[in-house]
Amino acid sequence: MSKSSIPKGTRDFLPNVMAKRNFIFETIKKSFQIYGFEAIETPAIENLKTLTGKYGEEGDQLLFKILSRGEKFDSAVESVVDKESRGAKEHHLCDLALRYDLTVPFARFVVQNQNEISFPFRRYQLQSVWRGDRPARGRYREFVQCDADVVGTDSLVCEVELVQLIDEVLTNLGIPDFTIKLNNRKILTAIAEVVGESDKMMTITMAIDKLDKVGEEGVVKELSGRGVSDAAIEKIRSLFSLGLDAKKNLETISKFVQESEVGKKGLEELEFIFNTVEKIGLRSAKLEFDVSLARGLNYYTGAIFEVKANGVSIGSIVGGGRYDNLTGIFGLKDVSGVGISFGADRIFDVMEGLKLFPEASLNGTQLLFVNFGPQEEAYCLKLLNQVRKAGVSAEIYPKKAKMNKQMTFANRKGIKHVAMVGSEEVAAGNLTVKNMDDGSQQTLTIEQLISQLK
């Protein structure tokens, strides 16, 4: 018999891990709601044509495609035998795919439901996405994204609010040191224009987005390999040595793109965000301008965001940006949107590594009733009902067993209080309660126990 397993890049989650994950989800969800975002959900699968062509060449290659079924599959097999082109074969073999992110399906959702929602529409969504990536630490094939988007307005106030929202969520999660990095795709467009390589804008964008991963020489090698001229590379290279001072960096970029109208527009947008955030203030975040930040997704058109947890060797934990044309692909033009996505799985890894999960977030069952036999069991079931109605998480061991076995069960589950109700306690109308942390015992009424646990 073969050993059971799960696909690489996917995970099972035990209860103690789920308690921590739920703490992250609930913290994020609470902030989303406070900022006026409303919850939606979309299907795990989308039509393949909905997703292809939206994420760039690399993104399209990472889509998890779903084989056609029944007659359509039989037809596809015949097409393969007929040696059709690869694209035609794929069209027949696969007509659906698992969603790659939540943003493109959201754009499709907005178009389909435009008469049912009010613009500007603020939505949040916490659901799984799938990518056929090579698994690594902090990089999974199935993971949860927690998105917040505003669609139906091009106001830069939305970008400012999203910066505040990032700061709010990560501060509430207890992450001590993090940086929000900002750039603008208009500036990247201008850079390609200024160096005389406008037709290679996406090539340049995808290459410089890897600066943190492959270093300056790695970016130069990729640019050269993709046909960018040496003169253009040298001009681009001069931007890699910018420091951390946002104002100085913006001044440097201002000089670099001064001949480009689109560049000046992008610069104006960034300056508004930085100046407004500076006036309002942030709780914890550092805010930086990073010209190498590109975020390789094709649909971004304006401000782009990325967040790093400082001192932790893991990728970005939040990302996002402005997209002006995404709904237009599905037939609804001139509807601009902007959004961010919290990577819950990477946030989990950061918090786990730094031991940031608060004790209260890990509580499962608070109280276990020991089972001494049928008579005591019947009595405890009434008490159990009373305790649960009071909002205390409790359970009873399902049948009579040795005391050591029941205590071991409580220890393994991390249950901190055990109520022992034998014949003497039943007669007296009280409980003997053991604290599993220090071994101490108390005799309490059920009302006193509920008060203590709450």
Q: CATH homologous superfamily name of the largest domain? A: Bira Bifunctional Protein, Domain 2
Whole-number total of structural domains: 2
Distance between the termini: 49 Å
Overall radius of gyration = 28 Å
Which class do the helix and strand fractions yield? alpha+beta
Sheet with most strands: strand arrangement = 1-5-6-11-10-9-7-8
CATH architecture label name of the largest domain = 2-Layer Sandwich
Number of helices, where a helix is a run of at least 4 consecutive DSSP H or I residues: 18
Task: Tally the beta strands.
Answer: 16
Name the overall outline: elongated
The percent of residues in helical segments reads 40-55%
Q: Could you list the spans in which at least 5 consecutive residues all have pLDDT below 50?
A: none
Largest pleated sheet: 8 strands, mixed
Mean pLDDT: 90
Q: What fold name goes in the CATH topology slot of the largest domain? A: BirA Bifunctional Protein, domain 2
Task: Look at the structure and give the CATH class of the largest domain.
Answer: Alpha Beta
Provide the β-strand percentage band. 15-25%
Describe the model.
- The radius of gyration is 28 Å and the shape is elongated.
- The protein has 2 domains: 15-63 and 100-353, 2-Layer Sandwich (BirA Bifunctional Protein, domain 2), CATH 3.30.930.10; 364-453, Anticodon-binding domain (Rossmann fold, 3-Layer(aba) Sandwich), CATH 3.40.50.
- An 8-stranded mixed sheet has the order 1-5-6-11-10-9-7-8.
- The chain starts with 14 loop residues before the first helix and ends with a helix.
- The chain is of the alpha+beta class.
- It contains 18 helices and 16 strands.
